Amino acid sequence: MKLNKPYKAAAVSLFVMGLGIGQAVAADSCKPNAELKTVNPAQITVALTNTPPYSLEKDDQISGIDGDLVKKFAADNCLKISYKIFTYPGAITAVQTHRADIAVGGFYRTAARAKVVELSAPVYLDQLSAVSKDGIDTVDGLKGKKVGTVQGYLWVAELQKLFKSDVSTYPTSLNLAQDLHAGRIDVALDGFGSSAVQNQGHDYPVKLLKEDKRINATLFPTQTAFLLDKSNASFVEAMNKAIEQYRKDGLIAETLKAYKLDPSAANVGASRVVE
Fold first, then answer.
1. What is the pTM of this model?
2. Mean pLDDT per segment of 10 residues, for the chain of length 275 residues?
3. Distance between CA 227 and CA 114 in Å, rounded?
4. What are the structural domains of the chain?
5. Which of 12, 115, 117, 234 has the fewest C-beta atoms lying within 10 Å of its C-beta?
């Protein structure tokens, strides 16, 4: 899994609610949706990873898809927001050691993570995209093309089995996009969010790779989650209820669309984890 991706900030924040650090919500005018405990009273403490478009710091606030949803949750529960920027391992540890209520950043729902932190209900899918001048969107369309992807993704082995030496792997999404734009590869396969970020300002359409049983990730894209404190049952319950309500209301789909992702990624299906 590769989620730490460089970013040229251009994201749109849907929920600008004045909930930055140090700004209190008026207690006499706000009724929380749920009774819950937090690390610090009347405050939600966020372990933020700078991994656009999933999460980032912008204008001294949390932002990105996950950031906007957490801001909505905070407003719904009369909480102000504090945050600190972490690496992925650091964010997990912050939640595990009760220093943060939640970690955000497009975290995959994995069995390994589920052992140390609570995985929220699935938030959205990290769908597999194809980026090319020709708008290729099928596995058969990759035949005869120079294909690139990022090391460590779940679909790499399947691609190499299908196309062998025609597949190149890269250490980061930025390296992948650079070779695509330079014409050294014909098609770049990456998570949709990363593709949307890396190809901004370039004439390369980002397409969902259509379902094909030869590439399992097209049938069962990886689900993302917020990482929560296992010991805080009230917070976990409130967050999971909120996620499902935001899905039902169309809010998750709208947020994905605002960050140039396909809104169909909000349709997560049954909960699952990556082993």
1. 0.85
2. 37 37 53 95 97 95 98 98 97 98 96 97 97 97 96 92 93 96 97 94 96 96 97 98 98 97 96 93
3. 9
4. 27-125+222-266 (3.40.190.10), 128-219 (3.40.190.10)
5. 115
